[in-house]
Amino acid sequence: MATSLLRVPPPQGLLRPLAVPERLLLGPGPSNVPPRILAAGGRQLLGHMHPEVLQVMDEIKAGIQYAFQTQNPLTLAISGTGHCAMEAALLNLLEHGDTVLVAVNGMWGQRAADIARRLGMLGTAGQHRWASPGDGHLPLCFMQGLVRHKPSVLFITHGESSTGVLQPLEGLGKLCHRHGCLLLVDAVASLGGAPIFMDQQEIDVLYSGSQKVLNAPPGSAPISFSKQAREKMLRRKTKTPSFYLDMGWLANYWGCDGEPRRYHHTAPINSFFSLREGLAMLAELGLESSWERHRANCAQLCKGLRDLGLELFVKEEKARLPTITTVRVPEGYDWKDIVAFLMDNHAIEITGGLGPSVGKVLRIGLMGCNSTSGNVDRVLRALRDALRCCRRSRL
Ligand code: PMP
């Protein structure tokens, strides 16, 4: 018998069946995937340039245009997660000599500032406070930042999943355009859960993710570019520093440039099937019903949390992100104990804080099909149980 040349044996873990327990995912994402979307992702593959796949891509494009409320022809899904869309937006919009102004109101502004800094194009990562919607005043720092730094792009996060704050955008697009600046908005955590109107609000680049309200697995990220954003990209003197995320190539692959489609990369076809179904479910429900569903269940959750004696992290109701609720870690408890208790005893995921909110809050997500009154009752019951069992005599 020939002696084997293999020195690395087959890993024992891979010789056991895949283990995926049932869990209710009520953290800040991903959320549970309903059977229809799961089934779509499990369909047999087709070639990535087959007409049926190109048709699915066209339907995704139309679904994103609906979800974003935009008519932009340059609308597609990035083959990657929300971060990938964030990088795609910044890499394609900016080139040497540009300045980006980043509004930092939590973790996602910090991340955008990090990416911009790596590109060597950060104007300032100005901290800004949330302004009341409808009060007619945008934070003064926006105005000052636009005047002082003359940025080409202003980045802002609509739904700050690290703090649970919803950022009003009214008037911001107009203000940016008056100063010759493009408005770039992250709606990963808010899309489908809170109103956003890309065209009416004059947003130039908007992106989101698949795994939150859209209830698809992570791995594809809707993005759209306005005419002005597209023109800025066409004026580039240098090539986009990433081939994979080059919007010229992606526009062609997604049939947005009127040219015959050329191979760019092998798209994650099954992720696109799932995303298509997530967008279809949103279209069937209707954006307004979806916003109302998230509003109502978030309100029920907030009332229940208060009834448990807990303190909401975001004081003003209008400033609360309807998809992710932040609640202060109560005195006498360690957030890690509560999170672990819910997982071990109730098979529910909630999480602690992120970035600036680490150690201060618990985050509870109710997104898409997970946003139900029944799930609110379930997580409140589990929390009541945790508050009874997890108190530490001395921290
Ligand atoms: N932006 C926001 C507001 C988010 O909540 C997230 C994900 N938590 C991201 C960006 C990044 O998305 P992903 O994890 O899919 O890369």
Automatic annotation (TrEMBL):
<dbReference type="GO" id="GO:0019265">
    <property type="term" value="P:glycine biosynthetic process, by transamination of glyoxylate"/>
</dbReference>
<dbReference type="GO" id="GO:0005777">
    <property type="term" value="C:peroxisome"/>
</dbReference>
<feature type="domain" description="Aminotransferase class V">
    <location>
        <begin position="45"/>
        <end position="379"/>
    </location>
</feature>
<dbReference type="GO" id="GO:0004760">
    <property type="term" value="F:L-serine-pyruvate transaminase activity"/>
</dbReference>
<feature type="binding site">
    <location>
        <position position="363"/>
    </location>
    <ligand>
        <name>substrate</name>
    </ligand>
</feature>
<dbReference type="InterPro" id="IPR015421">
    <property type="entry name" value="PyrdxlP-dep_Trfase_major"/>
</dbReference>
<dbReference type="InterPro" id="IPR015422">
    <property type="entry name" value="PyrdxlP-dep_Trfase_small"/>
</dbReference>
<dbReference type="InterPro" id="IPR020578">
    <property type="entry name" value="Aminotrans_V_PyrdxlP_BS"/>
</dbReference>
<dbReference type="GO" id="GO:0008453">
    <property type="term" value="F:alanine-glyoxylate transaminase activity"/>
</dbReference>
<comment type="similarity">
    <text>Belongs to the class-V pyridoxal-phosphate-dependent aminotransferase family.</text>
</comment>
<keyword id="KW-0032">Aminotransferase</keyword>
<keyword id="KW-0663">Pyridoxal phosphate</keyword>
<dbReference type="InterPro" id="IPR000192">
    <property type="entry name" value="Aminotrans_V_dom"/>
</dbReference>
<feature type="modified residue" description="N6-(pyridoxal phosphate)lysine">
    <location>
        <position position="212"/>
    </location>
</feature>
<dbReference type="InterPro" id="IPR024169">
    <property type="entry name" value="SP_NH2Trfase/AEP_transaminase"/>
</dbReference>
<dbReference type="InterPro" id="IPR015424">
    <property type="entry name" value="PyrdxlP-dep_Trfase"/>
</dbReference>
<protein>
    <recommendedName>
        <fullName>Alanine--glyoxylate aminotransferase</fullName>
        <ecNumber>2.6.1.44</ecNumber>
        <ecNumber>2.6.1.51</ecNumber>
    </recommendedName>
</protein>
<keyword id="KW-0808">Transferase</keyword>
<dbReference type="Pfam" id="PF00266">
    <property type="entry name" value="Aminotran_5"/>
</dbReference>
